[in-house]
Fold:
Amino acid sequence: MRRKKLLVLLGSVCLILVLAALPFMMACAPAAPEAPKEIVISIGTGPVGGSWFPFGAVVCTIINEHVEGVRAAPCLGGAVANAKACGLGDQLIAMTNSPTDKNAWAGVAPFEKQHRNLRGLWMSYPEIGHIFTLAEANIKSVSDLKGKKVSPMYEGSTGFVMNQRYLEEYGMTIEDFSKCTLIGYSGGADLLKDKHLDAYMINTMPPNAAFLDVCTFTEIHIIALDPDKIDSLIAKDPSYIHVTIPGGAYPGNPDDIHTIGYKCGFTANKDLPEDVAYEVVKAFWANYEMVMHVNPSFPIYIMPENALDGMVLPLHPGAYRYYKEQGYEIPDHIMPID
Structure:
């Protein structure tokens, strides 16, 4: 009996000692490896009704499917707003364009300060200036917009800035319109279709789906810029390029239309990790054909050999590494500075 009690007592002592030592044993045990942290990226795109939002959404799909440890989602925006958000780090990747990038870097209007945290990833296609007008409004040139109901796009968009520069070339401002409506693509298309606008000024890749629909059911004329105005605009800002809206791109407009455009692309904040930037650029160019359904003109412009055309920002080191590996000739003015 005494033996049995002694064994019970010894067992209890051993249990107490084991429990007391357990925290120390756990502290000495090797820690389980932490699961890799997922990086969440918000990609600034454009308004609904243009090419930017669906383009950005497909890029997010490419990233989510092909870049491990990264989740990307598109958000609405515009080039100016995106450049500001990306420069401040609120967006790690954003869609912008060459004149906006140039102005953001320099800190000139519409930017209040320099945004020197922006870095280039790749360029894609030209945004082309369109001025859609109701045929019954009898608008033959930019000068005829005076006294009309016009939308020059919306504040925060590169188009709004660019359209004001068109007007300046003709000695006009938005104050010369009888009514100025600041609205995005889809809303502008609806207002033009319902004849609440006489003209809508837009920068987009032809054919723009929303305005293709308008031109199908409403008699619309797209007006050209005068050749001397095109030359003057390019002389003042070489990030602009002389482009043509092909005849027949929109119903009722069979002739080529000469105008101004600029290259758009994808920009990163300098704090995007180098390896992530490298994998994102690599994944895009390995799968870029996924974006071709967004706009029928994309196959003409979006191709690896055009990846650096029109870039004005210094390359992100991760992007630079990718292009260097692929044998690209990289211009001095876009060499990394980090």
